[in-house]
Amino acid sequence: MTAPTSPPQEIELKLLFSAPDRPGLDRHPALCDGLVSGVVHHHLLTTYYDTPALALYEKGLSLRVRQSGGAYTQTLKSDAAGGGLAASRDEWAWPVRTNRPDTTLLAKTPAAVFGPALAEKLMPVLVSDIRRSVHLVAYGGAVIEAAIDEGAVRAGGGEEPVRELELELKEGPVLQVYCLALRLLADLPLRIGVETKAGRGYRLLRGGLPEPVAEPVVLLAPETPTEDAFRMIVRSQLAVLIGNQPAAEAGQPDGIHDMRVAIRKLRTVLRLFTPRLAPPELERFEEALQRLGQVLGVARDWDVFCLQTLPAAFDPRELDECPQLVAAAEEKRAAAHEDLHAELSGPAPTMMALELMAWVEDTPFVPGSAADPDPLCAFVPKRLDRFARKVARRGRGVGHLDPKGLHTLRKALKRLRYSADYFTAFYPARHVKPYLKLGRGLQSALGEINDAAVAATLADSLALAHPNLASFCADIVQRSHKRRKKSLHDLPRLWKDFHKTDEFWR
C-alpha cells in the first residue's frame, strides 16, 4: 500500500472575492512582499466520486481524484472539525495512475467502513475546474500558502462560479492566518467562505439551498486550563455563526435562528470568562455581536410570525379568504430578510469574526490571569454561582413582574443555562438532569410569554400600516394575550420548582 503523501490534517481559512477584486489580490503587498518562492500556477481538474445514494457524503467524507499536468492525486477528506474559522480537516492523499479512485488505499481511513464493495459502487458525481495561483508567504513568523482559485463547480446539470482565496497554514501559529486575512480585508472586500468545492457541488447535485450547520461538540475536562476552554468554546460558536451564514443569506429560517443562538452563546461566553479578559476588547466585541443579533432578531421574529403565528391563529380557509394579511406579513418578512442580507454581505460580520478569532488565538487575557492556579473545575462553580444569583434576584416576585422584568429574567436564565451546558460532564448525571429539566421548563414558559408579546407587537404594526386588516390583527393580539396569560399562570409553579432544586455544580 502506498503511504499517504500529505500530513493527516490541514488548517485553512477560505475568503471569497468578486471578479473586479482579483487584480488587487494578485498585487497585494501582503501576498507579494513575503513570497518565499515564485508564484506557481496550476490548472486543477478534480472529479469527486460517490455512490448513487451519496453514501460518502452522508458520512461526512469526500473522495476525489485531481489531475494537474500529467499527474493524478487521490484525496479523501473528512468534515471540518475542531471549531474556529480556519477549518481543520483530516486529509489523506496518494498519487494514483488514473482518474479512477483506488479504493485499496482507503483501508486505514474512515471510508474503510464501506468495505471492498465500495469500488463497484463509485461513480463521478461532480467536477471542479479551477485555475489556481499559489503564493507561499512568510508572514508574522508563519509560513502560509495563499491559493487564489477561479473557475467553476459543475454537478447535476448546474454550474456555480468559484472565486476564493484559501489561506493554508504550513508552519507556525494559526493566529497568523487570521492576521494575514485581516491585512487583506483592510484593502479588499473579502468575505469568509464556509462551503467547500465539494459542498457546493453536492448542493447543486441535490438541488437544495445551503444547509444549516450544527453546533460542534466541545469536549472539556475538569483539568482543562481555563484559557484553553475559553478558546475552544469561542471557536465552536464562531464556527456555528459563520457556518450558518450562507443558509441565513438564502433566507432559511433555521440558518437565521442558529446564527442568532450562536451570537447569544458568544455573548454569554464573553461574560462567563469576564474576570480573565481585557475590558476594552471585550466591550467592543459585545457591541458588534449585539448589533448583528438585532438584525437577525428582526428577521427571525417575522419568520416566526409568518410560519407559526399566522397558521396557529387561523385555519387555512380563513387565510385563503384574507390573502392581504399573508401578503402584508410576507412583505414585512421580505424587508427584514433584505436588511439581513445587506448586513451579512457587507464587511462588518467578516471583520468582526476575524478580529474576534485573532484576539482569541492571541492573548485576550488580563496580564497575570494565566498564572491563576485555579483549574477549570475551580473557576466554573464561581462563575455559575454568580449567574445563578443573578437569576434568583431577577426572579423575585416572579408572578408580579412586568414585561421588562420577565424579559430580563429570561435573558439571565438563558445565560446561566448556556454556560452550565458546557460543564455538565464534570458532575453526576443524577444531579445535572433534574436541574436542566426544570430550567428548560421555566425557560420555555418565559419564551412563550416573550413570543406572545412579540406576536402582538407585530400584529399591531400590521394593523397600523393596513387598517383594513385591523380585525384580523386584533384576533392575533387576543390569541397572543391568551397564550401569555396561560404561561403567566404556570410561571410561579415552574419558578418555585426550579428555584428550590439544588444547583448541580455545588
UniProtKB/TrEMBL annotation:
GO function terms (MF aspect): inorganic triphosphate phosphatase activity; metal ion binding
CHAD domain span: 223-500
Ranges of residues in domain CYTH: 8-208
Protein name: CHAD domain-containing protein
